[in-house]
Write a structure and sequence with these properties.
mainly alpha, 17 helices
């Protein structure tokens, strides 16, 4: 009896350690996706110059990370299967720490952009390996709950990012936005020592052609969108970049149809809710990235907010998510996700329309706060039902790759909309261009709600606590 009891305790201890490692390993990747946003004005003040002007530098600091993260996240799942989850997670953690140090000491804008791209490569190894550890260690209901906890905590990293970043920028330096990753990673590596190693799966292959086509295709399109305003839209460099990037992305999809071990299994999109849910994700998370990017820059560069205050200004969204997400997830499990995925983005879009009241003063109580509260309510209505609908549409054994696909879709949507920011604002951020960006953001959110209304179908018996693996 005592031996059996000890065995149960040992397994529980291992599971807890695995969950902590998985959360911390993904935490730094998700945190860096948002914590940098409030540091962008300070980065531009120090590193922008003739070779890279302020707005393009700010766009590239965001998108260089998202390009490699989004393009390689899917193939990273195969790498984890081939070489073993713990080994790949450890490599990703070490790589992320080294890239973070390079970001922290960057002497120039181009150096920082390159370091951010390397950070995205390492970050891409973290999320699939973390989820794979959970899936390998937990089973049944315990697995669903563990994934739900992982989601809640890693989503929290993205939500509190602007606040943490603002504090670091104002009371230390923008460089601490990157230094902070190092101690977190050191603790994670120490905890990882207690996780048993796993052998790679025989017969699995790494989709190198797919990874190359995806990364180069995204980089080509994004380069053209960001640099088109500066170099001219008829410039051969811009035209070749956009056309070549688009061709490579088409080639990527065609190759995935015949690849023996594809990084993007197109069969998943045969499930209606998975396909339409990812279309909605594209619109909704594209809107979130664009809206957050321009709002943070406007509050600091035009309205004169400090980095900390610009982060605090967006905390109502965080509080709404914490207070209401689980409740709306439960309601969606009872009544189906379609209503919530339709209404939620529309409410969030109304929140952005309310922010059209913002002028150069950005008076918080009447101009910023009402829109933030309504936007937070809409986001809380949306996120859990959206995740449950998408992951509930794929078999349990595909939960890992399904989550990776959905996360990659969200990242790619974000990098494309941020790349469009210069086109939307005309390269100058003032009240008029800010309002244009708000209208585009609201339009994307309304589109997400419409796509959900048209495409999502309610499924009886969906557990709202199962498969909540959305992390963006």
């Amino acid at each position: 009896m005592s031996v059996a009891g000890h065995s149960v305790r040992a397994v529980t201890t291992l599971q807890r350690r695995v969950l902590v490692v998985a959360v911390l390993g993904s935490f730094v990747s998700f945190l860096d996706g948002t914590v940098v946003s409030v540091a962008l004005p300070a980065i531009a003040d120090e590193l922008a110059g003739p070779g890279m002007e302020a707005l393009p530098l700010q766009q590239w600091v965001v998108d260089a990370y998202l390009i490699t993260l989004g393009a390689l996240m899917l193939v990273a799942g195969s790498i984890s299967d081939v070489y073993g989850r713990r080994r790949v997670l450890a490599a990703g953690l070490v790589g992320f720490a080294l890239a973070s140090i390079l970001c922290a000491v960057a002497p120039t804008g181009p150096f920082l952009v390159l370091a951010r791209a390397l950070q995205g490569v390492a970050g891409a190894l973290l999320v699939p390996s973390s989820l794979a550890l959970i899936i390998a260690t937990f089973s049944g209901e315990a697995q669903s709950r563990a994934i739900g906890r992982w989601t809640a905590l890693t989503t929290g990293a993205m939500i509190v990012g602007p606040f943490v970043g603002g504090m670091l920028v104002d009371f230390a330096s923008w460089r601490w936005v990157f230094w902070i990753n190092v101690p977190v990673i050191a603790v994670t590596l120490w905890l990882l020592r207690g996780v048993p190693a796993a052998e790679g799966e025989p017969g699995r292959h790494i989709d190198v052609p797919g990874a190359v086509l995806a990364a180069l295709g995204l980089a080509g399109v994004v380069f053209g969108l960001i640099e088109g305003e500066r170099l001219g839209w008829t410039s051969p460099v811009i035209l070749v970049s956009i056309v070549a990037g688009a061709v490579m992305l088409v080639a990527f999809v065609l190759y995935q149809r015949r690849a023996a071990d594809p990084m993007l299994p197109l069969r998943l999109f045969r499930a209606r809710n998975f396909a339409w849910g990812n279309l909605a994700t594209t619109a909704i998370y594209g809107a979130l990235s664009l809206g957050g990017f321009v709002l943070t820059l406007f509050l600091q560069q035009v309205a004169g907010y400090s980095a900390t205050w610009s982060g605090v200004a967006q905390l109502p969204t965080t509080l709404a998510m914490i207070a209401l997400s689980a409740w709306f997830g439960t309601l969606a499990g009872r009544y189906g996700p379609r209503l919530f995925m339709t209404v939620g983005p529309i409410v969030a879009g109304v929140g952005y329309l309310l922010m059209l009241a913002i002028d150069e003063t950005a008076y918080y109580p009447t101009q910023v706060l009402p829109g933030q509260l309504v936007f937070g309510l809409g986001l809380a209505i949306t996120v859990a039902p959206l995740t449950a609908a998408i992951l509930g549409a794929v078999p349990t054994h595909d939960a890992g790759i399904g989550s990776a696909v959905n996360n990659a879709v969200a990242r790619v949507a974000g990098l494309v909309t941020v790349a469009f920011a210069g086109i939307i604002t005309g390269g100058v951020l003032d009240v008029a261009s800010f309002h244009r960006a708000l209208l585009v953001t609201a339009g994307l959110l309304f589109l997400g709600g419409l796509l959900s209304l048209v495409g999502i179908r309610n499924v009886r018996g969906v557990d709202p606590d199962a498969n909540l693996v959305k992390s963006s």
